[in-house]
Design brief:
The complex is a heterotrimer of chains A (339), B (288) and C (262). With 288 residues, chain B is mostly helical. Chain B is built from 11 helices and 2 strands; from the N terminus they run H-H-H-H-E-E-H-H-H-H-H-H-H. In chain B, strand 1 and strand 2 form a beta hairpin. In chain B, helix 1 packs antiparallel against helix 8 and helix 5 crosses helix 6. Classes of the chains: A mainly alpha (339), B mainly alpha (288), C alpha/beta (262).
């Protein structure tokens, strides 16, 4: 009956401080408050201070690009993990938002600070309408349609030679001041990140998660799932269009490459690496991937091969992502326990 | 008259693109987003065999088909089998593979020159006053023969019947002793081989370009959706519908709009009859 | 209790490919009664539910609820009218705690209109209303049970949760698809009073069941289906005495042999 060695198993339990602050929710000391607040403060302070630390214009711009991709990754994570819709074509939102903002700016002369939100909301409406036909159906169809739209729109623009054709729309204003340009995106990212985290815990967020898990039950509960999916798609596509509008003003140019594959693939890779479902994981993923991709810029489209392979490795070997690993270490302790 | 001839050729081409995709989806419920990549890859392999290894044409073709089938099966066995059943992960994983292959070819394979495969038979014949080259006729004939051979295979050989069984009801097939994992690998290999066949037949008509990988994928998906996922007859019919629609737009509107037709077809189908022409309703939603 | 029919099913037919699942089925359900639907496997019982509640569109025939034609309407519209159902293959939201499962139906337009079960017309905090409903349905209030993650709950509780989800919509008609299946004797013993109480609160119930003894304790009328057709309709004893019903369940030849050689 007895074995030679004592048998052990690994046990994972929440830390005491987590149970107090999270489970019971009683904050009684500075230490416990700090436990809850410090990761968030770290994130916010880190992001806000980053531009001051970065040497030179080039790296400051990289931070803006990181934030743009972070917006896209946020939208992807929200749709994929909380609503169950996989958007394979982030470039679709970027292109629509970008072109709309460019038009608002050049044709109607509005300042970028008006164009960007305007393009975001209008773009959200446009994208949601275009994606409506596949919302009542299974997730596969959404993936297929989002995959195709950027490829098609790029070709239509090229073929009809509208909206600047292959040359694109030039002469777009940039933000009034470089600091504004830098911090506008960062603040937008932070606001949307925390906003979405609040949203998924409200009742509406619960309904969206229920639609993902079990849409027959939601239908039987007298709710029109198409309407809720449309709401979620509107939110996500507005975020994507916002990103597109920003990037068009940063580069002062909108062209067919605004529909580039980069915008579709990198957010997915960043989400998977950073930890899907946490909404902050995609941001971390972008902080890692975008500088790496800048360094690989010389290799041309090999970048995309690189993202794809990493994406594949994470998806297939079901790695949990950095953030989830980090959260586990932070909240739980592991130990060996004798059986 | 020209429209009829070119329309038929285009339709057969579309049907060929869709064949591999429909097979893999029908049997293992995997939407293989790497289909277009396998198409281009097989063309590349054939070209390399022909020009770099200096093998003769027939051998190159056989090599391309075999290697592509093998690559497809290996991809499935190593990667996709691990995400079997999780639809979202399947889509992302196969998309990532396809992307890696296509962009990898763009970076490392095709640089500068145009790559072509020579046609099987040179020369052309005149049908009702229009000159049609033999290669295009060969496409129609061989394409039809391929579909017929596939039908015979799935209806009269043991492996084919096992595959059909899996397509209809996987649990029942498992209970009858059909190993669904192995069958899924076989299905993927078969689907890749069909992609290679399509490539071999159709690439001689033009150049081997990486863009065609994306186009082929989109057209294959369009045909399957319009025809109804899981229906052979529907896929063929849809191929003809879209094929003729494309040729008509080329004639009357301009060559750029070909792909737009495919997208419109998909959107219209999803709005009007989401299960496609001949699809079964249960494909769309889970059973209650 | 016998008023006009609240639900009328007229000549409903449903074919799947070559199989006729329902064959010109017609029946009425009266307000405030409990109608039991029984029949051997494959007789089309779940198909009837799906056709009535809009999850499947009938090939032919009509379904009327309070005089309105609800045939082939989308499921959420039908539920919005007050026709709710449970699922034979249970579909709770496994990753959520039990009481959060109810937040979703309480979010629906119908719940907001009617205030939900015992909401009295105004929807308060959905979490508290959820806990109240769970208490009604038999979850012990002051224990940790309503807060447990649904995937850890045993079948008895899950079945009650399915019913709770219907109740959150303040329904007029609940169609229970095999609610007693998979439960132990004691669990059923505590479900029966619950069903009776629902009837006393004015809800009409259609119960599709295999467990006949328990069903006959609560049902007012029973209908037997076989091969998608209505065989017999009436009170429990007269239905079970009918020889056609016994043939349907046991088959015709064997009964004679067993009787002869016993």
């Amino acid at each position: 009956m007895s074995a030679d060695k004592p048998q052990r198993r690994r046990e994972r339990i929440d830390r005491g401080i987590k149970v107090r602050t999270g489970g019971i929710y009683a904050l009684m000391s500075w230490r416990e408050m700090a436990y809850l607040i410090s990761p968030r403060v770290l994130l916010i302070a880190g992001l806000l201070l980053l531009p001051l630390v970065m040497p030179g214009m080039y790296w400051k711009r990289v931070i803006s690009i990181v934030c743009i991709y972070a917006l896209l990754a946020l939208a992807f994570d929200f749709l994929a993990h909380y609503v169950g819709l996989v958007s394979l074509g982030g470039a679709f939102f970027v292109g629509v938002g970008g072109y709309l903002s460019a038009l608002l700016n050049t044709k109607m002369g509005l300042s970028p600070l008006l164009c960007v939100p305007g393009a975001a909301l209008t773009g959200g409406v446009v994208c949601t309408l275009l994606l409506m036909p596949c919302l009542p159906l299974r997730g596969v169809y959404f993936a297929i349609v989002t995959l195709m739209y950027p490829l098609f729109l790029a070709r239509v623009i090229e073929a009809l030679d509208i909206l600047g054709g292959t040359d694109g729309i030039l002469g777009i204003d940039s933000f009034p001041s470089p600091w504004l340009e830098q911090y506008f995106v960062i603040i937008v990212v932070l606001v949307l990140l925390f906003g979405l985290r609040r949203l998924v815990n409200t009742d509406l967020g619960l309904v969206l998660r229920a639609v993902k898990d079990n849409d027959q039950a939601v239908k039987a509960s007298a709710m029109n799932i198409t309407r809720y999916k449309a709401m979620a798609v509107f939110i996500a596509s507005s975020i994507g269009c916002l990103a597109g509008a920003c990037i068009v003003h940063i580069y002062m140019w909108a062209g067919i490459s605004t529909f580039a594959l980069d915008f579709s693939v990198l957010p997915i890779a960043a989400t998977v690496i950073g930890g899907s479902g946490t909404l902050v994981g995609p941001l971390i993923g972008c902080l890692i991937l975008v500088p790496v991709s800048e360094l690989l810029r010389d290799f041309g489209t090999l970048r995309i091969v690189f993202y794809s392979l990493i994406l594949l490795a994470f998806i297939v070997f079901r790695s949990e992502g950095l953030m989830i690993y980090g959260q586990r270490k932070y909240h739980q302790l592991e130990r060996w326990k004798a059986i | 008259m020209e429209i009829l001839v070119y329309g038929t050729i285009n339709s057969v081409a579309l049907a060929l693109y869709a064949l591999g995709f429909a097979l893999v989806y029908g049997i293992s419920r995997l939407p293989n987003f790497a289909h277009g990549a396998l198409y281009v890859l097989s063309g590349f392999i054939a070209w390399s065999a022909l020009n770099t290894l200096k093998l003769n044409y027939l051998l190159s073709i056989v090599l391309a088909m075999g290697v592509t089938a093998l690559i497809g099966a290996v991809i499935y066995r190593l990667f996709l089998i691990r995400v079997r059943g999780m639809e979202i992960s399947e889509i992302i994983a196969s998309y990532a593979i396809g992307l890696a292959i296509l962009e990898g070819l763009r970076w490392g394979g095709f640089k500068g020159m145009t790559y072509t495969l020579p046609p099987f038979i040179e020369g052309s014949v005149s049908i009702a006053g229009i000159s049609v080259d033999y290669q295009r006729l060969a496409v129609i004939v061989i394409g039809a023969a391929l579909v017929a051979a596939l039908w015979l295979f799935t209806h009269h050989t043991r492996i084919g019947l096992a595959l059909r069984g899996m397509a209809q009801d996987e649990r029942a097939a498992l209970m009858l002793g059909i190993d669904s994992d192995i069958m899924a690998v076989v299905a993927m290999g078969l689907g890749s081989m069909l992609a290679a066949c399509a490539a071999i037949l159709l690439l001689p008509l033009g150049n081997i370009v990486v863009e065609s990988g994306y186009n082929v994928l989109i057209l294959a998906i369009a045909v399957c959706i319009v025809g109804g996922l899981g229906s052979w007859v529907g896929a063929v019919l849809a191929a003809f519908l879209i094929g003729f629609a494309q040729i008509l737009t080329v004639v009357y509107l301009g060559a750029h709009f070909q792909m737009v037709v495919a997208l419109l077809a998909i959107i219209l189908t999803l709005i009007l009859k989401p299960s496609g022409l001949f699809g079964r309703q249960k494909e769309l939603e889970e059973r209650v | 209790m016998k008023a006009e029919p609240i639900l009328q099913v007229r000549e409903v037919t449903k074919t799947f490919g070559g199989i006729i699942a329902l064959n010109r089925l017609s029946f009425d359900v009266f307000e405030g009664e409990i109608l039991g639907i029984i029949g051997p496997n494959g007789s089309g019982k779940t198909t009837v539910v799906n056709c009535i509640t809009g999850f499947i569109k009938p090939s032919d025939g009509r379904v009327l609820f309070r005089g309105n034609d609800i045939t082939a309407r989308p499921p959420h519209k039908i539920a919005d009218l007050g026709v709710t159902r449970t699922f034979q293959i249970m579909r709770p939201y496994y990753s959520l705690p039990a009481y959060k499962n109810l937040v979703i139906p309480l979010f629906s337009p119908r719940a907001r209109r009617t205030g939900g079960w015992r909401g009295g017309g105004r929807m308060g905090d959905r979490n508290t209303v959820g806990i109240d409903i769970l208490e009604e349905i038999g979850f012990e209030r002051d224990s940790y049970v309503p807060y447990k993650t649904t995937s850890t709950l045993p079948t008895g509780y899950l079945k009650r949760l399915e019913l709770a989800r219907c109740l959150a919509l303040k329904p007029e008609l609940i169609i229970c698809d095999e609610v007693f299946s998979g439960l132990s004797m004691s669990e059923i013993a505590s479900m029966v009073p619950l069903i009776e109480r629902l009837q006393m609160d004015g809800i009409t119930l259609i119960m599709i069941e295999h467990r006949l003894r328990e069903l006959f304790q609560v049902a007012n009328r029973v209908m037997v289906l076989n091969f998608g057709e209505k065989l017999v309709e009436g009170g429990a004893e007269e239905v079970m005495a009918d020889s056609r019903v016994r043939e349907a369940y046991f088959g015709s030849e064997k009964v004679e042999e067993v009787m002869v050689h016993a």
